[in-house]
Amino acid sequence: MLRISVMTRDDTSFASRLAEEERWAHREADFQRLLNFEPKGCFIARKDGKPTGMVTTTSYGDYAFLGCLIVKREARRQGVGRALMEAAIKYLSGRGVRTIELDGLFPAVDLYRKLGFKDKYLCLLFRGKGEVRRAVTTTYEPQMAESIVRFDGEMTGLNRERVVRRFLEDFQDSVFVIGDNRISAYAVPKPRPGGFFTVGPFIARNGEVAEALLHAIMNKYQGKPLALGIPEGNRPGVDLPLKNGFVHLPPSLRMYLGERRDYHQHVYGIIAPEKG
Question: Which CATH number fits domain 125-269: 3.40.630.30, 3.30.230.10, 1.10.10.1760, 3.30.200.20?
């Protein structure tokens, strides 16, 4: 018998093990953070009492992102993924969400389309390495958080305050910013399992200032692997890593359910595949 229930902190160790089986770079702390963002919006599937799958959601007002849909290999093609997705969609719809997006891996795209999701664009992934670069940035201070939150909302048109603030708090020693009273760009590189760093969120007014910030990040993390996820529609953003020696990794497909929203023009690095 299949049962879908709300994920609790007792489930985060299972979630991290399941992600590890798929070679996803998610730690248990990542799932605990997701529960902080959405304590009633992450779900576990159990079949005959045993956990077999999961999905997470993160809402930003009437916009939300869905991610981490994983079903154990032996339980696939038995309706588990669909049941998890339906639970997540029902939860978000009940909160008044009008747009749900996700970054879909291609083996799951057919399921998403059957649930009504439409193709939007590719989310392109890049991997590079830090190296010596010349760049000048503003030293981040915690009191700058308010300005960064306002800047993020101005650039994306979304209310991502609670998520942005949490990342500024959790990774304050690695926040990069250009500007003081008037922010022009900010980014948060985060350490991941395997010794690499994902750069995101990474928001900038234009490609020129984004490149200056990327150079500062590359300079600090000399010799360290760096990863970026960039919406295909942001052409200056796509060109930026390629100009700086990064290479393509297999992309995902950004999809949406409900109203289409285009806010990618200033996104030079997504927060994470499960958060948008």
Answer: 3.40.630.30
